[in-house]
């Protein structure tokens, strides 16, 4: 089924690339025949206080389970991202801050200045009692201080937990409570597309919720200057505590396996999971993959449009690019503000060479036609990337042909919060592309496809995507819940890491990710757990039961379809529909807003009472004619009424 066209590597790109075909083959060969040499090559990219003598030490077998990389090495991630560049790149621009409002002049922050700002905050955090191993929650807009906050934590050995600025107070509170953070760093407000986000007020609301008493201090960045409520002595202005600090700060010497950060992500059941990444392996993998997949050169201007609240921001805004001494744009805004040319204007203004964004943004901009793109030059671009969800070939084509002027390779990068860095992606100077495919595994990465029983599938096949062995960027555990870690990722197929994704491999060995096969919905590249949305709905007094599924959505990739059964004496109406939408936004945040709420007289259940989501998914997709076997339903009549209801709602 390698039906799709092949887009060859542009010869001029290949000629100048860091990794050409021969180098790629040599790396794969080394990773297979002499893995230690390959893993050492990655470790050697970093500056170690004590170089590791141990390399890979892992087993996915339940009885002998361990994931350790470079375990006896000692280093500091912040030193690797800043200090080691000072001698040669102290005056090089690290960050170009592009504000939400295009009229605001851009700020250029050099490696030297970034180092000083990080040191001042590191000292301030220590003065406020934050010690090695303590957790710090970061709830900030996409501003330079978000990067400063993460690196300052890394410098003093504190573990950051960044919470995306679009999350609501309850979600912040859950994340604070789970890891018992001592300190929160936030801002007065965020700005996105001209809209103000009340970040400090959200933190105030979160800290009134149960389980958040661990927080002693809230540091507040003055960003928009809005009037906010400061509760002394808990709340302190960021500038007041940092301005008085010296520009140098002694870094902690961290073990390679010491935690670097926790990042919460949605799973198919229960509350969000605290994915824990450690220091040495994570940083080596983020740095190497960033250089290899983006073909990074010293004079590139790189721009990743993700938010630091997601793993893409961690690995490919903060740790990878800064470890590599790159110059990059940090963008506060959104793709369509003030208009649909914004991305392309920013590319021209800062002469961006490497651009990395999500398919959902590409699809939304594609809908605006070619004119907003063609008004701009984009001549500086030499490579484009995508991440977060499958990219449909039409959107890939538009990105390649219109945005990239058919000159720039498109790297479709498959990975996850859990993988820490990219695992399947083209090496752009070596890999021929197929629109819609993440192409081939990187050296050292061992993906495989299995059937429902866990049998390995050979050659051309479709199945569930697993990884047969560890890589340095792999998550180590779920914070405070190692049993759930094993259960979630290593029990479906014993001895293998299960990704939760379905995938097809074509005759050329190219991987085509088909999407999640579990109860996770990928909305605009953001993972939403159906269970979280359901629990927000059933918390409403008039809701008896709710079931949430994803359905194909032109722009978002997937939309959220909620089936809601009301308590017996309540009739549905539009006011209640609006209330339920609000209830979800309040509990989780705007990113989880249901696209559709369908009133369901009842939900399809098996005789043992289990909701048959397969059927609900088909109805939401408008594929009621493919419902398959419904004979195990307790009441097959339920299905007809739902199919009718879905038709009426269209
Ligand atoms: O389903 C896959 C999809 O996003 C999931 C991971 O989501 P998250 O942990 O939030 O990380 C997103 C950024 C790395 C995966 O299980 N996904 C991610 N990248 C791709 C993708 N699906 C298809 N193609 C991709 N390039």
From TrEMBL:
Binding residues annotated for CoA, in chain numbering: 192-195, 312, 336, 524, 585
Segments forming domain AMP-dependent synthetase/ligase: 83-467
Positions annotated to bind ATP: 388-390, 412-417, 501, 516, 527
Leading EC class: ligase
Acetyl-coenzyme A synthetase N-terminal domain ranges (all copies): 25-81
The keyword rRNA-binding belongs to this UniProt entry's keyword annotation: no
Keyword Ligase: yes
MF annotations from Gene Ontology: acetate-CoA ligase activity; AMP binding; ATP binding; metal ion binding
Binding annotation for Mg(2+): 538, 540, 543
Cited InterPro entries: Ac_CoA_lig, ACAS_N, AMP-bd_C, AMP-bd_C_sf, AMP-binding_CS, AMP-dep_synth/lig_dom, ANL_N_sf
Any one of the GO CC terms: cytosol
Entry EC no(s): 6.2.1.1
This protein's UniProt keywords: Acetylation, ATP-binding, Ligase, Magnesium, Metal-binding, Nucleotide-binding
Pfam families: ACAS_N, AMP-binding, AMP-binding_C
Cofactor(s) required, per the database record: Mg(2+)
Residues where N6-acetyllysine is found: 610
Domain AMP-binding enzyme C-terminal: 532-610
Family annotation (PROSITE patterns): AMP_BINDING
Mod. after translation: Acetylated. Deacetylation by the SIR2-homolog deacetylase activates the enzyme.
Catalytic activity line of the entry: acetate + ATP + CoA = acetyl-CoA + AMP + diphosphate
GO biological process: one example: acetyl-CoA biosynthetic process from acetate
Function, in words: Catalyzes the conversion of acetate into acetyl-CoA (AcCoA), an essential intermediate at the junction of anabolic and catabolic pathways. AcsA undergoes a two-step reaction. In the first half reaction, AcsA combines acetate with ATP to form acetyl-adenylate (AcAMP) intermediate. In the second half reaction, it can then transfer the acetyl group from AcAMP to the sulfhydryl group of CoA, forming the product AcCoA.
Family of this protein: Belongs to the ATP-dependent AMP-binding enzyme family.
Protein name, as recorded: Acetyl-coenzyme A synthetase
Organism: Cognatilysobacter lacus
Underlying gene: acs
